[in-house]
Amino acid sequence: MIGSLRGRLTYKQAPLLVLECGGVGYEIETPLTTFLELPSLGTEIFLHTHLLVREDAQTLYGFSTETEKHLFRTLLKVSGVGARMGLAILSGMSVADFHRCVQYEDTAMLVRIPGVGKKTAERLIVEMRDRIEQTGSKPSAAAKIGAPADPRSEAVDALVSLGYKLPEVTKLLARLDLDGQSAADIIRQALRQAVH
Question: What's this model's pTM, rounded to 2 decimal places?
C-alpha cells in the first residue's frame, strides 16, 4: 500500500495530477478541495494517498489531509458508494460539513452533490452515523479542514441550538431560496417562516 508521496508536481488537470518521486511519475486522482490548493508546476508537494486495486485497474487517490483520506476510506465501505462518489462528496463539501450532514440528517445538502440521490443520501447518513461515532469523530471547530462551514450548515446548527428539531429545520430550509445567502439571512428567513 502507498500511504503517502512527496515529490515534484509535473502535471495537473482536474481531477488528475502527476507527482514525480525519484524519477517515477505517479498519476493521482484528487478531490477538488485538494486540487484547488495545488501550487504551480515544478513545486514539491506532499499528499496522503490511498491505492485502490481492482481487477481492471490500480488507481491512486491523493488528499491534502489525513482527515480527508480517512473519510474517503470510510465512504468506500458504504454500500453503493464507490471511489467516484467518494471523490464527488469530498469535492462538494469539507469533512466537517459532511459530519454535520450526518449528525443532523441533512439529506438536502447531500443530494446537491452530483451522483447522490435521495436514497443514497439516506443510506450515507444511516451507515456513516455509526462509523463516525465508532471513531469518535464528530463535527467541531477542530474538524474543519480549510474552508469554513457553509452558511446553510451554520444556520442549521444555530436553529437546532435554539431548540428547533432537525426535521422542522429541514422543512423550513427546504422552502427557502438559500443561494448567496449568509447564515444570518438564512436564520432570519427561517424564523420568519416558522412564525407564519
Answer: 0.69
